[in-house]
Structures are given as structure tokens and as C-alpha cells.
Task: structure prediction
Amino acid sequence: MEQPDTLRYEPESRFCPIPPAERDLPTAVARPWLKVSQEEPNDLEGVSFDRQGNLWFVEAAASRLHRVDMQTGEDRVVCTDPLRRGMSATKHHRDGRVFIPSVGPDFRHGYVFTVNPDGSDLTVLREGPVFDDLTFDRNGGYYYTHFVGSVSDPCGEVAYVSPEGAVTPVLRHLAGPNGVALSTDGSVLWVTETAAGRLLRANLAADPVTLGPTPCDYTVCYRFTGSVGPDSCEVDADDNLYVALYGQGRVLVFNKRGYPIGQVLLAGREEGHFLASTHPMIRPGTNELYICTNDPEQGAWIFKAGAFAGANPNDFARL
Result:
């Protein structure tokens, strides 16, 4: 008796298969670069670079801030929040301080911490919203994501904090806004909406220096596939956007108009490892892409691959 055709699993079917529409994109593979010493399994977040070329990131739940000397490879814990209020990203202010947004210990009451580069004077600058990520503009103010909300209760938002401390809502009624990034000229704001699985693109004021930030509308450029949505994002020198996909062990790359043009796969994802990819960042002066990730069996790592272009130079002009 003739046997019927049978469905058979592909290698990634049990974990996070790449959607058909994305399988033929230009693809690079990221390899392990730095294993992070830690006392317990813990998500890494918020990789960034300072003016001296050091790499920074945080252990989120453990509330530890790291700095890596890129010349020696030394990974040092610069400071720890003894109250373990959570850390979710790192950004560098023009005055040298490190800004650390925080979702708080329970994703209900967050903070923005500041700390000196030597780890001294850890200070609460703002609190209340669930601060997941922030990005500075040319004036020294910053946009942040209030990481709350769901599809049934879209109460999250993106807001702007002026250099003087005034807060202006920019995007409202969002379902878990997570990553936020500015285009190289500061005219476009990108936002990843985790709970809704969407990539948003908002045009800002034509002259943000004189007009300032104003509430604006946005375009939904992309809808992601899977049970976990997009995480943090960064822009390169060609205005391409790199979006980490949490739970998928990969980074999807979009051009400045919001079309997918490439992807970076973390080695081991095909076996279900290193799926918790959270934040991509390009090293200044190179096209080296560094990606935070975590695996419950093999620990927390930073992976490395090549990007389409170099780092966004205006990330540092705005500092």
C-alpha cells in the first residue's frame, strides 16, 4: 500500500524558523566574541561605545554596568545598583556621564540612572515611567520608550525630555514600545513595538532645533512574525536600521525607508541556543556589529559580525 507524503521537521522547526519572506535576504552569521562572567543567568542589554572606544553594556536583572577595554579585552563591572532596580540600556551624555534607563524590578516603576565613567555617583535622574531605551538628539535632550501596554491595552508611549527637563509626549497608545533610534540627520524616529510585533517610523519636525519635538503620527513599516517581538534597534552610517529579535537569535536590517535588506544570525540558534538577542551596536571606525544575547545553558555572551556600513557618526556628534 502506497504511503502518503509525510510532513518532516526542518532543523529549526522546533525553535524559531526564519519566515519564508526573510529566508532569501543577504545573511551574515555572528560568532561568539565575549563571554560575560555572571553569578546567575541574566539577560545582557544596551551595548554602546563611549568616546574612548570602550564598549559598555548591562546585566539587566542583576543591575550591573560593564565596561570592556577594546584594546585589552578586559571586562570590568563598573558599578552595581545594590537595590537591583533593573538596567535596560546604556547611552553616553556629552558631559561624560553614562545614562542608564531602567524598567524597574517589576516593569511597573522605572528609572533613569546616571553614573560617572569611573562608576562613581550612581544617581536617580528621573523615575516613574518604565524606561526601556533612550536616544539623545542634537540638542542634548532625549527620546525614551515607556515600556508598558499590550495589544488589548495599548498604554505605552514615546516621550521627549528637553535639556531643561520638560517632558513632551511624542507617540502614544503603543503596545510595549521598546527600542528607539534616530536617523543620522535626526529627522526620523524609529521605534520597535514589542507586544504588537511592529516597526514604527515617525517623521519629526522639519526643523527640530527651532520647533522642538511635537506629538506626531507614524507609519507601520513592518510586522514581525513569532511569539516574541522586536527588541532594541540602532542606525548605521547609511541610515540602515538594525533590529534585534528577542527569542529568535537574529538581527533584521532595514533600509532608511523601512524595507528589510539583510539579517544577521547568531551561531547556535539553529539548535535553540542564544535566542535572547537584545541589542545590536556598531563599533565606531569599523563595520563591526556587536550583539547582546543570553542562553540558559551556555551563559550570557556578546556576539560579533560584519554590518553593511560603519557606525552612525552623529551618535557621537550629539553626545
About this structure: The chain has a mean pLDDT of 92. The CA atoms of residues 74 and 252 lie 29 Å apart. DSSP finds two helices and 24 strands in the chain. The longest helix spans residues 208-211.
